[in-house]
Design goal:
By secondary structure, the protein is an alpha/beta fold. It is 40% helix and 12% strand. It has one domain: Alpha-Beta Complex (Spore Coat Polysaccharide Biosynthesis Protein SpsA, Chain A), CATH 3.90.550. Helix 8 packs parallel to helix 14 and helix 10 packs across helix 12. The radius of gyration is 31 Å and the shape is globular. Keywords: Glycosyltransferase, Golgi apparatus, Membrane, Signal-anchor, Transferase, Transmembrane, Transmembrane helix. Its main location: Golgi. It comes from Kockovaella imperatae.
Length: 437
């Protein structure tokens, strides 16, 4: 090879040297590597992804905005109205014996063993309670009689709106602070799925609802009633009203209630008005509770005095001590207290609280549970007003019956509750002892 030939390598395009054209596959590969082609390909891919996300969002929005006349997957089927309300929901698995495993192994031990955080923390008798109501203090340190937390779920906006219209206006805001207690919806396995889009849209709607009404608390956990939501609720209340001395807005008593429970406002006010919140008050009903656990009040609605809530909410308990059967778990926490220095005063309202179709509804009634359908909320609330009107009583904060009357009424087993208990026994459910007071 001559020097002239070596001066022009084969890879260069010399005008006197003929180079064969590269194969088609090689040309395509080189075109892809060109900057302009890469940019176009990237933009095309991004456009397809955006279109796909828009389609998923529109489908999710269509699911969320179905007309009210079309039941959503989480709605109660109207066809079940003819069945007993105890056929589904709270207590069914326990009644059938399916939760018998909760009395075994680690779960059983967690309901029996003491918790170091509760034992080592500031005890209720050391916390005390000095909460002036409106007109009792200087105004800057006034609190409320009851903080009412209604447990709700992200997708239950219709129920929250219904309660805002029908139930909550009954409660005087200077005596009762009402908040809906929520937690985050479950995280989807696939962050790019339609479920993820639906969850994001639901969270945005919740944030807008919170700004509009100011009556919601979002707890920093995934929503599951038996995964520690109740303890997180007490933690939030304890932290929100923490501080030495009198803290503005601090409640004398804290209540947890379900969003299918109608509380009879005059009797709720009457139940707590004359109680000393410095005492360890535990208020609710044991009527109809499961015999698998003892000394607890049913989760449809129960309350504790401020020192108990502060004590429980300030304890950094392990996960095993806050999960499973939330109302029975609350009863278990209270068993840690020293009966000498911190005795518990249990106020059992009995059969004045319970499933609405099993109670004898009178002016002594305190709470109606299992009000699953929206029309039932309206019907049962109206029925309560009629009962009070027929008795010649105003449905007002100052007209509640004395608590002793409700306690006496609650010791009488209603016919409906007895019949339902027998029906469950006939089905083979493990309910022996569930209706003992």
């Amino acid at each position: 090879m001559t020097l002239t030939a070596r001066a022009f390598p084969r890879s260069q395009n010399h005008p006197h040297i003929h180079h064969p054209a590269p194969p088609p596959s090689s040309r395509s590969f080189r075109n892809i590597l060109r900057p302009s082609i890469r940019l176009k390909t990237t933009l095309y891919t991004l456009s397809l992804i955006i279109i796909l996300l828009v389609i998923l969002a529109l489908n999710a929005g269509a699911q969320l905005s179905k007309p009210e006349g079309i039941p959503r997957p989480t709605d109660i089927s109207r066809s079940a109205i003819d069945e007993s309300l105890s056929d589904t929901g709270e207590g069914r698995e326990v009644a059938q014996g399916k939760d018998a495993h909760l009395r075994e192994g680690e779960i059983q031990r967690s309901f029996e063993e003491p918790d170091f955080a509760l034992l080592s923390g500031l005890q209720p008798s050391q916390i005390g309670c000095d909460v002036p109501l409106k007109g009792e203090g200087s105004g800057s340190d006034e609190g409320v009689l009851v903080f009412l937390g209604i447990f709700s779920a992200a997708g239950n906006k219709d129920r929250r709106d219904l309660y805002r219209r029908v139930i909550i206006p009954d409660f005087p805001p200077d005596l009762v602070t009402v908040k809906f207690i929520l937690a985050s919806p479950a995280l989807p396995e696939n962050p790019l799925s339609s479920e993820a889009v639906t969850r994001s849209m639901a969270l945005r709607e919740i944030q807008a609802e919170m700004r509009e009404h100011g009556d919601m608390v979002m707890l920093p956990i995934i929503d599951n009633i038996d995964s520690g939501k109740t303890h997180e609720y007490f933690k939030w209340v304890a932290k929100h009203y923490a501080g030495p001395g009198r803290v503005k807005g601090r409640p004398r008593f804290v209540m947890k209630a379900d969003d299918d429970t109608i509380l009879v406002m005059p009797n709720v006010i009457s139940a707590f008005r004359n109680l000393d919140c410095a005492d360890n008050i535990y208020w609710g009903t044991s009527a109809g509770r499961s015999h698998y656990f003892s000394e607890y009040f049913r989760g449809l609605a129960y309350a504790m005095s401020w020192p108990l809530v502060s004590w429980i909410g300030s304890a950094d308990m392990p996960y095993a001590h806050v999960i499973k059967i939330e109302d029975a778990r609350t009863g278990q926490w209270l068993r840690h207290l020293d009966p000498v220095t911190d005795p518990i005063h249990r106020l059992d309202m009995g059969w004045t609280m319970g499933d609405w179709n099993q109670l004898d509804i009178t002016v002594e009634t305190i709470a109606l549970h299992w009000v699953k359908l929206d029309e039932w909320v309206i019907e049962q609330h109206q029925h309560l007003l009629e009962v009070w009107s027929s008795a010649g009583k105003d449905y007002s904060a100052t007209s509640g019956v004395p608590p002793r009357d409700s306690i006496a009424k609650g010791k009488i087993l209603p016919k409906g509750a007895s019949e339902e208990h027998q029906r469950q026994k006939d089905l083979g459910w493990d309910v022996d002892g569930n209706i003992e007071n």
